[in-house]
Design brief:
Three copies of one chain form a homotrimer.
Chain A: H1 6-16, E1 19-23, H2 29-39, E2 42-45, H3 52-56, E3 61-65, H4 71-87, E4 91-94, H5 102-112, E5 118-122, H6 123-135, H7 145-159, E6 162-166, E7 170-173, E8 178-181, H8 194-208, H9 213-232, H10 238-251, H11 254-264, E9 265-266
Helix pairs in contact in A: 1-8, 1-9, 1-11, 2-8, 2-10, 5-6, 6-7, 8-9, 9-10, 9-11
């Protein structure tokens, strides 16, 4: 589990083009599909209760994002996550704004019981999710980054999963060890739903590299960090940044990713 | 209430980064989120009846757009608008295609009763909404621009709100006075849902400048007009226009907005 | 029915700016609206059962895409398709992933009974739809292109409609004759929902050219092929490709389309 293998993870993704079943929010659907396609995975968005389990059973991985949650969608998420759990299909939970309302906390508690392979969120969401799983508490927006690392590790250990926490510096952990990933660009928070798309890309990397989920999740995060850095070089603002980001993910080679990882990724959390 | 203060309104928006609860149509969700983010506001899209009131109560403003209406969404819109009304939270109504079907007229009548702070629409929609509130009539697509100004003023006066009516020349009125705003670009109608995004940006400006809703609404409209003019200078078509428009909103400074307003905004309706 | 008339079909589209009622998937909504707008048609997305028939009756054509299907949407699609059928309004069916689940097969069987004017899909979808209509079978992903042509012609003949089948080489047939259309670009499959948007553009072309649906459908397909070829010339990846593609559709002249058709379109299937 060393950073130079990130390039191999990307090669595996491109060679297998895994089919990723995405149940995500309305805002993110188009950009998530594009982010998967440009990197080399195959997206599919569907959620009807009549077909969702049937399709999850065919997919190589599942990505669930609760952004624009409602009752029929929560039902679909639970059906799909249960199918993934029963088939040992990797699945990723993106707990958007879980600390904001009681409804989100309830749905996330039900989803956590179905054992996501990876949880991908920002520091506030990881703190909220850890408090939820632990004590039923909500988000603590004023908590420090150190607190978020501790929460991420606690959550990963308790859930026996990977936690990929993104922000100015990204952290990926299995509860015991992990990676810190630098890079990216200050314009990234000005483009909507990049994080949602990253959750789906994490699912794609884990599908293509099922034996090393922490490494695979970190490679996905590093792809975004590397492409973000490249895209920021000539961007005039968030509009041209997003276009360049899609191009940069498409152009990113396994060698470039491994070299980026050697410079910008450390195994200290 | 003079146009040079438009720059101050933009400064206030960027300093406060207001949280805007958007209940909008599926077509507009991604671009609305991006248009808010690039200008300096913080978007949130959610609509489940289990959480919508809880979230509106936290938000700095609400933006309701009926584009891809259906029963569960209409219920969410009414719950959110009622919460906004009860909390004195500013809220904007975007009555997409209200003249097209009876269902839209019924839902809009219910929403109007909850006293939106601002109504943002095109001339046909303002005419239809005025006819609806007044006489239960539909849209008159053949009406002249002068008729639309009269309807906009009548609607604003009766509803005791601001009406922001956009088209080749934009008009913002409180029923007694107002602004006419030039600028923009002929490619803008070739990019989908820019108007929907403007409604959310109006909500953000009013949230950041709660004491002067007409000025704030006009400043939001002028942002679009200024950024549209800039974006059109080098655009090759609607695709490159949209990218440049996002960049231009991001780059627009308060000084540039005030200078634009001095040239392109008049207080004659 | 000769390829040089494709330019005339585009002229008719731009002169009439037909109103296209789109009931499509969440992923495709924004790009479909933009693809229609840049080419010269007028999109409208709405699906509430309270208004869908009322609106279809006003529209110049209907486009139905089952991508992110669910019960309320299936109900809306059937209501709209029935209205289109009763009013002799042209309507297009895009049977996304019809072979993937039994639910899609059931809904598509119901839609086929309402006689779409055009079916637009990829080879797998056309094979699945033909098997479905014929024998109730699913998709055969391993079938050859020749098999897909035979299935397309059989489906067109049995349904008495046009089948527009897209891929590396596009084919449009009425069951007896048709066109093969080259062009496009290898980046097109890396951009999500271009095919979904094409289905709506086919509806727009048929609305503007109601007397020659096969020619009109082919002209729409040729627009995409011509604009894709142009957009690919300077694209750095899928992000810049999509931007250039929207610009190229906007800039495409009827003369350019006819000249493209002379080089890249043949009447051999």
């Amino acid at each position: 589990m060393t950073t130079p293998t990130f390039g191999d993870s990307l090669t595996a993704l491109r060679n297998t083009a895994p089919l990723i079943h995405c149940i995500t929010n309305y805002v993110a659907m188009n950009s998530t599909a594009n982010l998967l396609l440009v990197t080399g995975a195959s997206p599919a968005m569907l959620h009807a209760t009549q077909e969702v389990s049937e399709f999850t059973a065919l997919a190589d991985a599942l990505s669930v994002n609760i952004g624009t949650l409602s009752s029929p969608w929560a039902e679909a998420m639970l059906l799909a996550a249960r199918t993934a759990h029963e088939h040992d299909t990797p699945w990723v939970l993106d707990p958007v704004a879980v600390g904001a309302t009681r409804y989100r906390q309830t749905v996330c508690a039900d989803l956590l019981a179905l054992k996501p392979s990876v949880i991908r969120g920002n520091a506030s969401e990881i703190l909220a999710l850890n408090g939820l799983a632990h004590q039923g508490k909500g988000v603590d927006a004023t908590a420090s980054t150190d607190d978020a690392i501790t929460a991420a590790m606690a959550l990963a250990e308790r859930q026996q999963c990977i936690v990929a926490m993104t922000g100015e510096r990204d952290r990926v952990t299995n509860g015991k060890a992990g990676f810190t990933i630098n890079g990216g660009h200050s314009l990234m928070p000005r483009v909507t739903t990049l994080g949602c798309g990253l959750s789906a890309l994490v699912a794609a990397f884990v599908a293509a590299n099922p034996d090393e989920p922490m490494n695979a999740s970190s490679a996905a995060v590093a792809c975004f960090a590397a492409a973000g850095k490249r895209a920021g070089e000539n961007a005039q603002g968030p509009g041209s940044f997003y276009v360049a980001f899609l191009d940069a993910l498409y152009q990113l080679t396994p060698d470039e990713l491994s070299h980026f990882a050697q410079r910008e990724v450390s195994d200290a959390l």
